[in-house]
Amino acid sequence: EPVNHQLYLVCCDITDGNAEHLKREHSLMKPYQGVGSSPTSQWDFWGSTLVTSSYVRLTPDERSKQGSIWNTVPCYLKDWEMHVQFKVHGSGKKNLHGDGIALWYTKDRLHPGPVFGNQDQFLGLAIFLDTFRNDLHGMDRSFPYISAMVNNGSVNYDHGRDGRSSELGGCSAEIRNREHDTYLAIRYSKGRLTVMVDVDDKNEWKECIDIGGVRLPTGYFFGASAATGDLSDNHDIISMKLYQLMVEHTPEEENLDWTKIEPSVSLLKSPKDNIDDPTGNFRGTPLTGWKVFLLLLCALLGIVVCGVVGAVVFQKRQERNKRFY
Length: 325
What we know:
Elements: H1 3-12, E1 20-22, E2 43-47, E3 50-51, E4 56-59, E5 66-71, E6 80-89, E7 100-106, E8 123-130, E9 145-152, E10 169-172, E11 182-189, E12 192-198, E13 206-211, E14 214-215, E15 221-227, E16 234-245, H2 251-255, E17 264-265, H3 280-284, H4 289-324
Antiparallel strand pairs: 1-16, 2-5, 3-4, 4-16, 5-15, 6-11, 6-16, 7-8, 7-15, 8-9, 9-10, 11-12, 12-13, 14-17
């Protein structure tokens, strides 16, 4: 593992210049001493998970496998950043591999289920690294696709639509069968959730998701899970490193019981609005350059069409008027 990447992650990543502190009790690093076997270990694993000295393999490249690894220590930090080095690789050709990895910060741990090997209707945050497209109508995005979901225990993850109805944001990222190291970072600070990726061997973070109004309690657990179905891949975690962010909070915030917060997102618009409204995604996303351009283009076309129709109608009227004279 390159040392300079380590230094770079620790010193230069936090954009607001805060000192960062690695929290070993919430971090998983080579050679994973005592993981799962010693009573003092801070990580448990389940299912098809295999711990070697250089990686934690959640699933092998075989069908119908599910595996997970979970931190045994609840996290009481109000502001944190998790850096995950992972590797998704296998012999399957493009589009013939699956299903992906999920990263969790949730109330419950080690609860197997249908969502990338973990339970549905969870309480907390999930980041999905989804490598297989289930929804053949959703051709407006390319896979692998990374997305975020916050759940208060009442929402089902809709596999058939790749979780689209409940996602808070996402991005496409080429994360599979890369020759170089691939990283993802999840930052939660002052109600803001940011997900960044470093998958192009450029040694720099690229923003994937950035949303405000996210409320998550303290006292939840970090974990990672993966699943294969009819199609498969090796889903490996190389490291999970949790850093504490040093952030000032108001006295009111400090005095709140953060363990009692219900996971929620105060979006202006509920993600559920996207279900039956194919334009929902268009409205829900910021007006980027090309969208503004498209809107202007449509407006211009509209004006031109109106102008042409108007001219034709005017011409006809003139002719009709001539006939009467």
